Amino acid sequence: MLKMTTGKFVQIPNVAFGFGTEYKLNKDDIRVYAYLQWARNVGTMKVRTNVEIIVEDLGWETTKASRDKTRVAVALQNLMDKGYIEMTFKKDIKKDNLTIIINKEEMKKVEAKSTVDWKTNPFTFKGYTDIKVDEYNLADQNDYHLLMVGYYLWRNNAGFEYAICDNEWADVLELGVKHTRTIIDDYTPFLNKISGAKFKDENGQWKQEPNTYIMDKHMSIEDKAEKVSIEVKKETYGEKHMSKVLDETVMTNNKIYKQIFDFKVFLEDAGYKVWKETTCEHTKKTGQIKIDKMMKSEGGRYAVERLETKYQKDIDSAKERERQREVMHKRAEQHMAEMEEEYVPSFKPKKQEDLSFFDDI
C-alpha cells in the first residue's frame, strides 16, 4: 500500500462500520474509499483516475492483473451503490478513465442502527471518524487493518468505555470469531488487547468481561509476538492454579489470588489472612511455598513477621470485641431481669360488689 506523507487526515462516515446495515463497507471498500480522499484534487471532492493506478497505489498487484482490477472495480461499485461516491466512465470500469465525486459530507449525515443477538441494545452509527496520516499508514501490513483502525478510533472517540467482545470484532471484519481472534492477537501489532476480568454470573457460571484495547503505533509484529507469548505463559500458569483452587474468596478476588499465587506480587494483610484461614489445600500449600521463599531473606522475614503480628493482633482485637459484646449482652439480660423483679403494678383491681336486685329462685 502507498504510504501517505501529506495531508492531515481522511474522514470515514461511521455508518461504514454499521454491520448488518446497507451502508457497511468491507475491508476493500474502506481502503479504496480512504485512498480516494488522499487522491482527490485539492479543494474539491473530485478524483480523476483509473483502476490500474488504484491497484498500483494500494499495492494490490498479484500475478493475475485481471483479478487485481476486478478487486478494485468491485469495491468502486460497492461504494457507488451504497452512496459513498458518484462515478462516471464511458463503458467499462476496469478499462476506462474514471471521474469520481466523493459524497463525504452527505454520508456524514446518515444514521443507521444495527441489532445483534449478542447485545440487548442496538448499535447506532452516525457522524464520522478522522484517520490521521500515521494511523492510515498502519494499515500496510494486513488488508483488515484500516477497517480495524477506523473502528477502534470511532469507539474510542465516541466516549465509550472501550470494551469490545470478539463477536463485535467478527461482525466488523465479516469473519468468524476464531479467525478474528487470530488476526487481532497475532497479526495486528498496533492493537494491544487487555483481557477482561472473570466473574461468576447469577447462575454461578464463570464468564469474562469484554476485552479492552489500546493502540500502540510503534509496536512491531515481532514485539507483539513476544508480548503475546509472555501473556499466554502467564495465563497458562494462572489457569493451572485456578483449576485447583476451591476457596471462594480466592476464586472471585483477583487481587487476593495474585497475592498468594504470583510470587512477584507483594503479600498484603488481606491475602495473608485468607491464606491463614483457608481450608483449600492447594491455596494453603502454594501460600506456604511463597512464605518459605520470603523467609530466606532478611526483608522477607521482616515482612512475614509483620504480617503475622498484624494477623494475631486482629484476631485478639476480634476476640476482645466479641468478649465485650457478650459482656454487654449479659449485662442487658441481667438488667432486664432485675427490672422485672422490681416492677410492682400500680393498678389494684377493685373488690367486686354484689349488684343483684333479685333473690335466687
Characterise this structure.
This protein is an alpha+beta fold. It has 2 domains: 9-239, no CATH class; 244-333, no CATH class. The protein contains 14 helices and 12 strands. The strands form 5 sheets. It has a 3-stranded antiparallel β-sheet. It has a 3-stranded antiparallel β-sheet with strand order 8-12-9. A two-stranded antiparallel ribbon has the order 1-7. Strand 5 and strand 6 (123-125) form a beta hairpin. Helix 2 packs across helix 3 (65-81), helix 7 packs across helix 8 and helix 11 (254-261) packs across helix 12. 24% of the residues are buried.
Q: What value does the Rg take, in angstroms?
A: 36 Å
Strand proportion: 5-15%
Count of alpha and pi helical runs: 14
* Oligomer class: single chain
SSE order, one letter for each helix or strand = EHEHHEEHEEEHHEHHEEEEHHHHHH
- The average pLDDT score comes to 83
Helix content: 40-55%
Structural class, from helix and strand content?
alpha+beta
* Sheet having the most strands: 3 strands, antiparallel
End-to-end Cα distance: 127 Å
Shape: elongated
Low-confidence stretches: 353-361
Count of discrete domains: 2
Q: Strands of the biggest beta sheet: in what spatial order?
A: 2-4-3
Task: From the structure above, extract its key features.
361 residues; alpha+beta; 3-stranded antiparallel β-sheet; 14 helices; 12 strands; elongated; disordered C terminus
Quick structural gist:
This protein is 50% helix and 13% strand.
Question: What is the strand and helix layout of this fold?
Answer:
Elements: E1 9-13, H1 27-39, E2 46-49, H2 51-58, H3 65-81, E3 85-88, E4 98-102, H4 104-108, E5 112-114, E6 123-125, E7 128-132, H5 133-136, H6 145-157, E8 163-164, H7 166-173, H8 177-187, E9 191-194, E10 198-200, E11 206-208, E12 211-215, H9 221-242, H10 248-252, H11 254-261, H12 269-277, H13 281-294, H14 298-342
Antiparallel strand pairs: 1-7, 2-4, 3-4, 5-6, 8-12, 9-12, 10-11
Helix pairs in contact: 1-3, 2-3, 7-8, 11-12
